[in-house]
């Protein structure tokens, strides 16, 4: 825990609390459940966990609608549970990053309720975006990212802005009370001992003055926001500079990572300039086609863009908003990556490709973000019935969008029947788990040679041994369809992204491979969708 640049090459594991482990048996995961599973995470070999929100919330958007930023929702536990979780994690050598949701609150937040109760002219209305409409129409033409208009009318006739669900009113970040409030929220959790924050919709918050119309532009997609009057405005950087100075007051390198969907990598790099946040998710990489030249150029572009501001690159393939990469990489992986209806894929081929992509990702210089369940090779669940779906976008967009529940199905830990140790035997789980998941459980894969869990455990252990954060990536010549690069002294990663088996010269000893490889006349043959790490 003493390495002060820990985050530059950290492996950070995203826990989606409602789907991780359910200790009290109500069908929804909780903080005591996470606490009970910390040894699993330590043995997996990750450096830190990031927890999606567990704060008091009516759960209109699975906790991304926060009613009280300093209270834990009773479905997840208490603030003492959070304190105990952080302390236990530290004892196991794990750091803890929590989610901060500053763009919007819940409509049940005390400020918003009071703003509503007090009516037009209430000073609390100024902490949100309340406006009069244009006749019977909303104040401008902005659509909500979750479908429908971005404005909801209240009984006294005014409208309020919500870029997401109607239960998520946007804060007015021009109001000093909003900025003050968030500075004290940061301190609250830093004092409790957390090691950092994941900043939700970090490219939101600041809106163009006057909230101008966008001229009937097409609908906005969750993460494909382009140039817009409410995303990635230059003003957000002032907020991050003020937060960075707070983080730096605390010992032990507390960090912040931005969920910033900006149009170019250089715009994303603005969030990680030396006096701003530490990391930003690399969504450009997440959305890159599984194709050799696209992968290679995105890797180069990412390293160059973040390197230009002295920040480490991050790499990620899955999270709670996107179709799992066991599925997504199989159909182009381009265009809309979030919330869209996933199609069926050959699961064996999908897992092979996902394993190759994960082993490539873990060899890249920088920090890796893993999403719970990817270490088990979980498939996307594509056949959840509409009545169990909870993604608010699914309901607002009346089924054309909002398929995020398929990656949020609770983790299978053990046993042969649902809920597979997620909660007590025979107990509920908030989303049904497929009947076929027994063979994917932690218990079924632990210690099994060739299992996806074993591949992750072994590669994370090797990662600590074979290269250092500062080891650059140096591309090597490779046959068509194959990418090969070296790092430091004595490490090579070779990945066959092509459609044919590839013969490569054997550069040394195999450290780990994502799938079987064979030897042929002194060369190694890598089937398509195979990654190998070598010691050279
Ligand atoms: C972020 C979260 C997503 C949520 C949205 C609104 O993108 O990752 O889950 O729905 O913000 O808070």
Notes on the protein architecture:
The strands form 5 sheets. The chain has an 8-stranded parallel sheet. It has a 5-stranded antiparallel sheet with strand order 14-15-16-21-18, covered by helices on one side. Strands 6-8-7 form a 3-stranded antiparallel sheet, with no helix packed on it. The two termini are 30 Å apart. β7 and β8 (159-161) form a beta hairpin. The chain has helices at residues 31-36, 38-44, 79-91, 110-118, 176-192, 236-249, 265-269, 283-286, 292-307, 325-328, 347-363, 392-396, 442-445, 452-466; strands spanning 11-15, 48-51, 55-56, 68-72, 95-100, 130-131, 151-153, 159-161, 196-199, 255-258, 279-280, 314-316, 367-371, 473-476, 482-487, 491-496, 502-505, 509-513, 518-520, 523-526, 530-535. 25% of the residues lie in helices and 16% in strands. It has 536 residues and is an alpha/beta fold. The model has no long low-confidence stretch (mean pLDDT 95). α5 packs parallel to α6 and α11 runs parallel beside α14. The structure holds alpha-D-glucopyranose.
Determine the structural class based on helices, strands and strand pairing: alpha/beta
How much helical structure, as a percent, in the residues? Answer: 25-40%
Number of strands: 21
Instruction: Give me the side-by-side strand order of the main sheet.
Output: 11-10-9-5-2-1-13-12
Shape: globular
Gyration radius, to the nearest Å?
23 Å
Ligands and ions found? alpha-D-glucopyranose
What value does the average pLDDT take? 95
Low-confidence stretches: none
């Amino acid at each position: 825990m003493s390495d002060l640049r820990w985050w530059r090459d950290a492996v950070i594991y995203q826990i989606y609390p409602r789907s991780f482990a359910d200790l009290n048996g109500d069908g929804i995961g909780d903080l005591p459940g996470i606490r009970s599973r910390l040894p699993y995470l330590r043995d997996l070999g990750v450096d830190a966990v990031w927890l999606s929100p567990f704060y008091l919330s009516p759960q209109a958007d699975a906790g991304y609608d926060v009613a009280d930023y300093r209270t834990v929702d009773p479905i997840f536990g208490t603030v003492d549970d959070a304190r105990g979780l952080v302390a236990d994690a530290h004892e196991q050598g794990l750091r803890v990053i929590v989610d901060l949701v500053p763009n919007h609150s819940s409509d049940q937040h005390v400020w918003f309720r009071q703003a509503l109760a007090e009516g037009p002219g209430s000073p609390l209305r100024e902490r949100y975006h309340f406006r009069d409409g244009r006749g019977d129409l909303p104040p401008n033409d902005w659509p909500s990212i979750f479908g429908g208009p971005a404005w909801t009318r209240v009984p006294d006739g005014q409208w309020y802005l919500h870029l997401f669900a109607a239960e998520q009113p946007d804060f007015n970040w021009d109001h000093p009370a909003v900025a003050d409030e968030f500075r004290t929220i940061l301190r609250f959790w830093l004092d409790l001992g957390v090691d950092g924050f994941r900043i939700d919709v970090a490219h939101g918050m600041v809106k163009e003055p006057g909230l101008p119309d966008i001229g009937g532009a097409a609908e906005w997609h969750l993460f494909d926001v382009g140039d817009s009057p409410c995303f990635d405005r230059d003003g957000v950087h002032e907020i991050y500079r003020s937060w960075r100075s707070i983080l730096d007051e605390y010992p032990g390198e507390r960090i912040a990572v931005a969920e910033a969907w900006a149009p170019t990598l250089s715009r994303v790099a603005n969030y990680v300039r030396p006096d701003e946040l530490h990391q930003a998710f690399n969504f450009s990489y997440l959305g890159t086609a599984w194709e050799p030249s696209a992968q290679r150029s995105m890797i180069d572009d990412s390293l160059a863009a973040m390197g230009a501001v002295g920040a480490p690159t991050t790499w990620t393939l899955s999270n709670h908003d996107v179709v799992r990469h066991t599925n997504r990489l199989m159909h182009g992986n381009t265009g809309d990556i979030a919330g869209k209806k996933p199609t069926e894929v050959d699961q064996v081929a999908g897992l092979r490709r996902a394993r190759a992509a994960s082993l490539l990702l873990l060899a890249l210089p920088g920090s890796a973000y893993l999403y719970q369940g990817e270490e088990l090779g979980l498939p996307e669940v594509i056949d959840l019935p509409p009545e169990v779906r909870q993604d608010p976008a699914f309901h607002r967009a009346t089924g054309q969008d909002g398929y995020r529940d398929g990656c949020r199905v609770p983790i299978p830990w053990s046993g042969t029947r649902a809920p597979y140790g997620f909660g007590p035997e025979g107990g509920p789980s908030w989303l049904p788990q497929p009947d076929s998941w027994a063979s994917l459980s932690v218990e079924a894969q632990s210690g099994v040679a060739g299992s996806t869990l074993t591949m992750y455990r072994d590669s994370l252990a090797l990662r600590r041994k074979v290269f250092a954060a500062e080891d650059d990536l140096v591309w090597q010549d490779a046959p068509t369809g194959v990418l090969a690069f070296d790092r430091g002294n004595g490490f090579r990663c070779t990945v066959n992204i092509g459609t044919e088996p590839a013969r490569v010269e054997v550069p040394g000893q195999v450290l780990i491979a994502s799938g079987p490889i064979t030897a042929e006349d002194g060369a190694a043959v890598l089937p398509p969708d195979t990654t190998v790490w070598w010691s050279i």
